[in-house]
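Reviewer 2 asked us to include a model.

Predict the structure of this chain.
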Amino acid sequence: MTSDQESINSSSSSSSSSDNTKNSYNTIKASIKEVYLWMDSELIDIFKIDDKLTWVEQKEDIITKLLPPLYKLVNKKYSVTNSDLLKMLYGRWRSRHRINNIGMQGKERVEQNKRRAKKNSKMQEKKKRRTRAVNYLLQGKDKYIQRYPEKDLVQILKDSAYHSEEWEETDSDADVEDNGSEPTIQTKSTSIVIYERWWRSPALHNLLHKRIDPTVNFLRKKQPNLKRKSVQVDKNPASVPPIGAPSWCLNEDALKKFNRRTDNIPIYDYDTEDHDNDSENNTTGDDESRESRENRKRKTNDNEDRDNRKRKRSSRKKSSKQKRRKKSKRSKYIK
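Predicted model (structure tokens):
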């Protein structure tokens, strides 16, 4: 077997393995909901996973009692291994076990967890909307979005750390509006409070809020019901930028704090204030250079005109001299 044949075989085997992995993932994704339904219906009398117990305490019973009949049931429709099923069961137990532990810590802790879950849900929706808006702008060949590196855009749109957190909070007494029923009765409302990331640069703000969000609002079919308040405070002051965050996404304080260079920061949006100042300076310089070029050109033209006039005068003098010579010759011949 030649080396070329070996390389072809190796590449085909790697592609087939990747295809198998992809098919396995899609199979698990399609089957997971039905697995949970079977567990809660047909198999509930055989064995039920206890959310209050640890995984170790009931793992043996799960493997010996629940897994065999579940495997037999699932593989009538899907090709899933015991290992895949065990991962599904563990994931569901972990989520429910955590919620159970939170419930034991009191109502306040339960409310905090609900708010956290809503915050995470809002973050995912925000990233989806902004991704949709960027794709829309790229398809329309927006001149501003096209200036940013594609790698940076993908990184920003995927990572939640680049986006401000949105928490649903009850309005304070100062913000509560009278509902008009009775002077003594007031209804408290809730608002979405948007907390700033302390390390984000004006350039990143400009990209998200000036270039992307207007398109988000344009593409949005349903407008938000709750009021939105933006505060210049970080919910987590100890937060740090994502690993490998581009320098232009960090403000000067963050660059210094994390020992990053503060010079040669690229500017992709030419309408930022700093670039406007630079462009004004450049425009002034261009005007001055343009004026000097025009003066030089004017002087050159004046010199050329002067030379042309001199040549014309000299040529006229020569022609007049030649005419006089010819006349003098003719007069000699006539005599």
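Residues 123 and 160 are 7 Å apart (CA to CA). Residues 2-18, 181-185 have pLDDT under 50 and may be disordered. We have added this to the supplementary material.
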